[in-house]
Amino acid sequence: MNKTPFVTLISWVLISFLTVVGCNQVTSTTNSQAIELTVSAAASMQDAMKEVAKAYQEEYPNTKITYNFASSGTLTQQIKQGAPVDIFISANEKFMDELDKNNLLLAETRRDLLKNNVVLIVRKKDNINNISRFQELTNPNIKRFSIGEPESVPAGQYAKQVLSNLKIYEQLKPKTVFAKDVRQVLAYVELGNVDAGIVYGTDAQISKQVKVVATASEDTHKAIIYPVAAIKRTKNPEVAKEFIQFLFSNSAREIFNKYGFEIAG
Fold first, then answer.
1. CA-CA distance, 215 to 191, in Å (whole number)?
2. Do 75 and 42 contact (CB within 8 A), yes or no?
3. Potential cystine with 240: which of 174, 175, 230, 250 (Cβ 3.0-4.6 Å)?
4. Which DSSP symbol is given to 209?
């Protein structure tokens, strides 16, 4: 009896078995290497950052990006209290400085990412008050207007700086509605809950229901810088650095420009 066919059959069975085992091992290894990054970012960034995540995951499909959007002050407090965050993007330098002073940033990962501007907005369909300047917020026909809470919302801090430089902040306090973040200000104006609001230019750009009636002069507020950094306690420092580097790539820059941000770095 010729044993060659039988031996050949056994060999192919063994090869097939080893191939299947090997593929399963590769799949298992790949799955075990799947990484999730939690990115805490200023509320004003959410539309742009969601699109950035899609672009990033096309290049790095094994990394999942989970976002936490809120006011920069709220996010800072969460990080100080131990929230599991890998990367932080603040809408101002103050809160990033605060984390830096508390030794919570991963060394040499902090970079200036974006710039923005401050604008006065009204509801597009019923601007009966014909506001065209920040100073006109003091007019009696302006019953309520909104800014972010200055202690925790960078957009609110910048708004306060603008109004203080124009010497009208204290006068406006009685009719000011303070919001938890800049997107809430935008919503108040869109819904007609207030007559006007102060937001970032990028927030106004995403809404079809509001229009910009004035842009604050740069000499009335501090420069609006969005810094980014990895958090020291991240469990995936190299991947966090990789994501930060991606934020400065051409594809990410195109997305930021699309949403009205200026590139700082």
1. 22
2. yes
3. 230
4. S
Cα gap 66→69, rounded to integer Å: 10
Residue with tokens 């209290």: 81
H-run or E-run covering 181: none
Q: pLDDT tens digits, the chain, 265 residues: what are they?
A: 444 444 443 444 443 433 443 434 333 333 447 899 999 999 999 999 999 999 999 999 999 999 999 999 999 999 999 999 999 999 999 999 999 999 999 999 999 999 999 999 999 876 566 789 999 999 999 999 999 999 999 999 999 999 999 999 999 999 999 999 999 999 999 999 999 999 999 999 999 999 999 999 999 999 999 999 999 999 999 999 999 999 999 999 999 999 999 999 6
Model confidence, pTM: 0.83
Q: How far apart are the C-alpha atoms of 165 and 41, rounded to whole Å? A: 28
Regarding beta strands 196-200 and 145-148, do their DSSP bridges make them parallel or antiparallel, or are they unpaired? parallel
CA–CA separation, 36 and 68 (whole Å): 13
First to last CA, the chain: 77
